[in-house]
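Forum: Protein Structure Q&A
Topic: Joint prediction for protein chains with partners

I've read a bunch of threads here and the consensus seems to be that you should model interacting components together rather than docking separate models afterwards. I'd like to see that in practice. Below is the full input, 538 residues plus whatever partners are listed. Could one of the regulars post the assembled result?
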Amino acid sequence: MVFTSNPWPPIVALLVGGFLFAIAPLGLAKVWAIKFSPAKPGIQKNATYECGLKSEGDAWVQFKASYYLYAIIFLIFDVEAIFLLPFAVAFTGLTVGACVAMLIFILLLLEGLVWACQKGVLTWD
Amino acid sequence: MEQAETAQLKAELSKHGIFTTTLEDIYNWGRKNSVWPLTFGLACCAIEMIATTMARYDLARFGAEVFRASPRQADLIIVSGTVTKKMAPQVVRLYNQMPEPKYVIAMGACAISGGPFRDGYNVLRGIDRYIPVDVHIPGCPPRPEALIDAFMTLQKKISEQHLAGEKRPRHLDAELPSEFPVPAYGEHGLEPSENAEVWNPLKIIQ
Amino acid sequence: MNGQILNVEQVKAAIEAAVPDCQLEILVNGSPSGQHSIVLDNAHALEIARFLRNDSSFSLDFCSNVTGVDWLDAEVSEKIKTKKIIDGVETEVEEIKKTVLPGRLEAIYHLFSMEKKHGPVILRLRTGNRIDQISVPSLTPVWRSAEFQEREIFDLYGIVFEGHPDLRRLLMWDEFKDHPMRKDYVAPAEDDDLLAPAGNPADQSKG
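Posted by a regular:
Agreed with the consensus. Here's the joint model:
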């Protein structure tokens, strides 16, 4: 079948088809809006909702800075996972020395995680 | 007339298994069968509205599947109950915050004209003083069947709306206003006491 | 809650024994309910309220209702016999003497006891007049349930409760200027008042 010769044309066709599937209704809606239904914004229509009351200020609350720790830890382990992926793919063709090097890599990151846990950084308070 | 001819053509074609429709019909059909109300109950009529949504009378089978808590997601506001003057600006603000197309049902005597409490010091004599009302339901309170009948009347009204031309509804017309002024709390009452562009009372000639 | 009904004379005597300088007055209620009320003087009202709540024989811990009354200036005419000199002869003549009772506002408290299951004891606090002496002490520090009800009376009658933790309008909005439940309140005239002769449309349509 097609697979044996070149796998890419059906994939490209599906990609384009998927893209059109998403874009076409949006395009139709745009055409409908231009032809029939004009935009009718208003100051009160776009005002912040507060159960019918006049809202003072806007809805931007102060974000808690202590959440940055979760972001940093996620970043570290995400990068680690990216390094582990090619290692897993090429695992069967590697020498023992490569495995030992990867093990040291994982252990270093594990030690960082243990340090973070002991510091109480990951507890939700 | 054009309508009679098209109706005849439609009937002919449907006999042969061909379904025809117009853009206007499809648009209105979609809109009228999915009118989502805003949860907005003020007083006793709200209890009847709740009863209408429950199992025995079930408004959901007419398309009012979910009552939305936010006006941004609602098509219809059912003003059910006495509107006090203190609450009136909030009702108008909520109506303004609904996106077009939007409809109003004034349920019960109090929402139509103040009802049995119209001489009260804090009672607004009808919500149609500030916002345009599409369907009025008389009753104190109206039965759930009356609310269902009003809903069907609204659906009929929607299905008769045109897509283009002079008689098109407010949400398709860029000239007509998209929001209505909110009354302010005055020293002795609301200011203004009514919105002259919206309120068309019957004059009592003595 | 069908407990015993307290004798109002006994309540008055007990209060006078506990709070020596107070000036009380019993207002007799002529209706079949027979719920007579005691008018307190504003200077000792808080002390009397605390006594009624804390005393073990009364233990009035539940204030079920606080309401307001507006008394307009009332003319009372009574016939009195006086001696007058008419044509040189001293004769007894009946004259009609008219006195004007000045108007005032009242706050009325209904008290019950959950512990002893008796009540109601009805207290009245009077203001000086309807115009500028409109303050009475607030009994919210004694009974918390009076908090919103005193706010409502402030909103609708205009009585200022001194010592209330949060005295502002309840039913009407803060910018509102009138006191709607006063007897001389005139609602703003509207185009669709059904019965509107020349005069006061609000009075007429209120029936």
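Confidence is low (pLDDT under 50) at residues 197-207 of chain C.
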